[in-house]
Amino acid sequence: MKKILALAALMVLASGTVDAAEHVIKMKNKGESGNMVFEPAAVAAQPGDTVRFIPTDKSHNVEAIKGMLPTGVTPFKSKVNEEYVLSVTEPGYYGVKCSPHFSMGMVALIRVGDGSPNADAVKAVKLPAKAGERIKAAFETLASAQ
User: Fold this and answer.
1) Is residue 87 part of a domain?
2) What does the alpha-carbon distance between residue 40 and residue 137 come to, in Å, rounded to a whole number?
3) Residue 19: its pLDDT value, please?
């Protein structure tokens, strides 16, 4: 009986990792919403999911925007022209930018989980004008997706 219970517990634990999803964000020079964009610019994920950033055009990277990560998440920065996989573990908003094109508005927003423990802090971060417009649009997209 103990072996059956142990096996059942192991199967339940293993099934949690099977449900993890991978989201793909492309880094582009030109997209549906203009020049220098992440597509999509708004992603709803769950803890345990991964987000793969693919530089479909050259000269892009992905970096956490200071003040736009959930508590406990270590800031990150990829190399230019390289794919980057971000494992999202903590619930909240993750704001990201392309370092070379940040002032041109190349930003994206990832919401992890259903709650938004750091939404006010993320909204309070000062951004370049175009980046601010696009982050606001990403918030609206994610709000309508709930």
Assistant:
1) yes
2) 12
3) 77
Here the contacts of 73-78 (C-beta below 8 Å, separation 24 or greater) are 78/53
Residue ranges making up the domain that contains 24: 20-144
Does the pLDDT value for residue 40 go beyond 90? yes
Cβ atoms of 102 and 126 within 8 Å: the answer is: no
Helices (H) and strands (E) in the chain, counts: 3, 8
The structure tokens listed for 21 are 């999803």
Q: Which residues pair with 95 in a beta bridge?
A: 109
Asked whether residue 83 is assigned to any structural domain, the reply reads yes
Domain CATH code at residue 51: 2.60.40.420
Residue 36 belongs to a domain: yes
* Total tally of structural domains belonging to the chain: 1
Confidence category of residue 144, pLDDT binned at 50, 70, 90: confident
Residue 7 confidence class, pLDDT cut points 50, 70, 90: very low
β-pairing verdict for 42-45 and 107-112: parallel
State how beta strands 50-55 and 92-97 pair.
unpaired
| Domain assignment of residue 4, yes or no | no
